[in-house]
């Protein structure tokens, strides 16, 4: 499989710096077990494939590049495409015994590929791939017959992404917190009348939209005993409801719908031919670069009686090929990609993205502070776990010392920026400052315990 690197897709400078800094921490975490071992002096080659849009590809390629820096003996050949093309290509590779070393998976593929011997039991890589920090219920979605074959990268939900500017100009009421399928259909008709183009994408072709509609009727696609959870009458009702909408011009025509390939670029909304689209929240972020004025997300319609059909599901998974020749390195790559997926929300443009960016930077700064203060702890010479624990307690209990560390680091950074040759000398004074803060904390504890004064 030919590898490639995505070029030419650029975010904002501020977003790029924040993402790069956060991913650097991911690289450290992914490489905490040490650089990969060379196979007889040869370079290890891993293949990683995923689906997505160019924006996701840019972030993924940055994460892969950092992994390669941390593991100079490993090269990662990457490949991505839209979801439909990716699904078909992966099925062909799996059938031919040529599955990638690391692959992105949808939750409906887990059972099939695990049962077919395509996926590695991740329990064999517990040392490299630690999952204790993942919600137990979410993690369980990657298990088949008690074995962990895939790790979820997050969770997502289906939404209605809409062109805010077009919707407002039409004069049609903006979507509220709740609406029924009939109200959604009326909104599509109103948009079509006032804008001269379909209000949205025809949902009749979408299994995901059908599932949301079913759940709003109190039913499901499948039962717990792996049978269909709906009847032919249910499907007839759904298609009768959706079939009349393109005939009325309320949603995309058959000609437009046949161009769908799983990418946001080829949706009617992405091509500027409709005012909205039913899509998952993660790929919906790609509309931001395609729609002038941006998009907003509305909830999926509910049942007639208000029963919600919208739900959370694992957004995507990472799996490792059962026949990979380098399972440890593949697991290390998966660790970094899992971390990168958490940080990617900061640049998606979704409503929570800015808040998440602030939280991610705060967490990253806290982790860096704890790591630096751990270096100054005497325990770091013999027990790093104890050093990190002591540093974490010190960071919280000694805000004054934490402030001094930040001042010292800021001073070192300013000096190095003003006079680059000083960057070589910065580690020395920084280490002295860290040690002084640690001694200060120990001295304060001694004075307090003896009844003396504290500062």
Which features would summarize this protein structure in a list?
455 residues; D-Maltodextrin-Binding Protein, domain 2; seven-stranded mixed β-sheet; two-stranded antiparallel ribbon; globular
Describe the fold and architecture.
The chain is of the alpha+beta class and about 450 residues long. It folds into three domains: about 15-150 and about 320-350, D-Maltodextrin-Binding Protein, domain 2, CATH 3.40.190; about 155-315, Periplasmic binding protein-like II (D-Maltodextrin-Binding Protein, domain 2, 3-Layer(aba) Sandwich); about 365-445, no CATH class. Helices cover about 45% and strands about 10% of the residues. The protein has helices spanning about 15-30, 55-70, 85-95, 110-115, 135-140, 165-170, 180-195, 205-215, 230-250, 255, 280-285, 325-345, 355-375, 385-395, 400-420, 425-450, and strands at about 45-50, 75-80, 100-105, 145, 145-150, 150-165, 275-280, 295-300, 310-320. The strands form two sheets. Strands 1, 2, 3, 6, 7, 8 and 9 form a seven-stranded mixed β-sheet that branches. β1 (about 45-50), α2 (about 55-70) and β2 (about 75-80) form a beta-alpha-beta unit. α1 packs across α2 and α1 packs across α13 (about 355-375). It is globular, with a radius of gyration of 26 Å. The N and C termini lie far apart (about 65 Å).
Task: Indicate the topology.
Elements (H helix, E strand, L loop, with lengths): L12 H18 L13 E8 L2 H17 L3 E8 L1 H13 L6 E4 L4 H6 L20 H5 L2 E2 L2 E2 L2 E13 H7 L10 H15 L11 H10 L15 H17 L5 H4 L18 E5 H4 L10 E4 L13 E9 L6 H18 L8 H24 L7 H14 L1 H20 L8 H23 L6
């Amino acid at each position: 499989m030919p590898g490639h690197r995505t070029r030419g897709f650029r975010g904002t400078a501020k977003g790029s710096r924040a993402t790069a800094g956060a991913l650097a921490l991911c690289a450290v975490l992914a490489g905490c077990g040490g650089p990969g071992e060379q196979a007889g002096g040869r370079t290890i080659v891993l293949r990683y494939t995923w689906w997505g849009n160019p924006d996701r590809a840019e972030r993924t390629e940055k994460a892969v590049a950092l992994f390669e820096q941390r593991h100079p003996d490993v090269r990662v050949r990457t490949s991505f495409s839209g979801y439909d093309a990716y699904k078909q290509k992966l099925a062909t590779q799996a059938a031919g015994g040529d599955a990638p070393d690391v692959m992105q998976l949808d939750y409906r593929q887990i059972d099939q590929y695990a049962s077919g011997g395509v996926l590695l039991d991740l329990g064999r890589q517990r040392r490299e791939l630690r999952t204790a920090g993942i919600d137990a219920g979410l993690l369980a979605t990657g298990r088949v017959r008690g074995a962990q074959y895939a790790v979820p990268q997050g969770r997502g939900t289906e939404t209605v992404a809409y062109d805010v500017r077009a919707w407002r100009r039409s004069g049609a009421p903006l979507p509220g917190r709740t609406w029924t399928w009939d109200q959604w259909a009326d909104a599509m008709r109103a948009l079509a009348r006032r804008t001269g183009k379909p209000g949205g994408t025809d949902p009749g072709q979408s299994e995901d939209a059908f599932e949301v509609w079913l759940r709003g009727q109190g039913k499901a696609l499948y039962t717990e005993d792996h049978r269909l959870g709906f009847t032919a009458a249910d499907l007839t009702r759904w298609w009768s409801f959706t079939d009349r909408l393109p005939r009325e011009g309320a949603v995309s025509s058959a000609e437009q719908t046949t161009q769908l390939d799983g990418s946001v670029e080829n949706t009617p909304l992405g091509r500027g031919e409709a005012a909205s689209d039913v899509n998952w929240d993660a790929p919906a972020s790609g509309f931001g670069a395609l729609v002038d004025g941006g998009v907003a997300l509305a909830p999926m319609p509910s049942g007639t009686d208000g029963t919600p059909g919208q739900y959370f599901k694992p957004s995507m998974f990472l799996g490792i090929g059962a026949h990979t020749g380098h399972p440890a390195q593949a697991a290390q790559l998966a660790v970094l990609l899992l971390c990168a997926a958490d940080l990617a929300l900061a640049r998606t443009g979704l409503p929570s993205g800015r808040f998440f960016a602030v939280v991610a930077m705060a967490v990253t700064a806290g982790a860096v502070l704890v790591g630096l203060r751990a270096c100054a702890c005497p325990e770091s010479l013999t027990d790093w776990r104890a050093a990190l624990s002591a540093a974490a307690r010190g960071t919280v209990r000694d805000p004054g010392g934490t402030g001094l560390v930040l001042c010292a680091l800021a001073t070192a950074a300013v000096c190095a920026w003003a006079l680059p040759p000083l960057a070589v000398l910065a580690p020395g004074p920084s280490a002295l400052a860290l040690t002084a803060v640690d001694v200060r904390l120990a001295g304060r504890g001694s004075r307090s315990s003896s009844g003396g004064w504290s500062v």
